[in-house]
Design brief:
This protein has 237 residues and is α+β, with helices and mostly antiparallel strands. The chain has two domains: 149 residues, no CATH class; 73 residues, Alpha-Beta Plaits, CATH 3.30.70.260. The chain is built from seven helices and six strands; from the N terminus they run αααββααβαββαβ. A four-stranded antiparallel β-sheet has the order 4-5-3-6. β4 and β5 form a beta hairpin. α3 runs antiparallel to α4. The longest helix is centred in the first third of the chain and has 51 residues. The N and C termini lie far apart (104 Å).
Amino acid sequence: MSPLLFIRQSCNNCTRNRILKKERVRMDFVFEDAAKLLLAIVIGGIIGAEREYRDKSAGFRTLIFICVGSTLFTMFSIKIADNSDPARIAAQVVSGVGFLGAGAILRDGSRIMGLTTAAMIWLVAALGMGIGSGYYAVAGLGAVVSLIVLWLFPVLENWIDAARHTEVYEIVCANTPGCYDELLSLIREAHLTVMSSKRRKAGGDMVSTWVLRGSSEGHSQLSARLFDDPVIKEFRV
């Protein structure tokens, strides 16, 4: 083989190897991107299934879309960043998720509902951004922590609510000097805390409204005492 032919073959082999290497790197990127999207579907789906089970506004499909969408935005921001700041697109994701979360919050009189769902939308978007950035372990740990909070903490929350339950009482009794003091005595015996109270006259009766806080047992005890007390004409809870 002539030296010239040998050099030409060597160059062709080098070029072929470079092309194969580029193709291999490209395929590695494709598999990694597919793995990111699959992980986003799994994490968004698990958290969404819990929300769907509790019949919340942001359920299974919604949270999958949020997780996959935030993952894609983060991946694209990294790929097209070049010399620019990749955090700009991520910041827009946070702003967009804020609008979604605001739509999940409803107000019913003095009650505000949907705060937990709004927080979950925000959290799932953060998990998707973590997946898109390649922080799989952190995103997985965040998903586990969020599921623990969703599954186990309601038990603790119910216990706290039972211990510090608030009820509004409207009590009607004869407008005598000792009626108000007797009501205070019954409330103290039930170990309830008076948050607020007001009273007004209605003919020969006194109508008092009480906002009381305490345990469920305390409220049950007070209701039983009010029902048995002959001075009390009527009460509503």
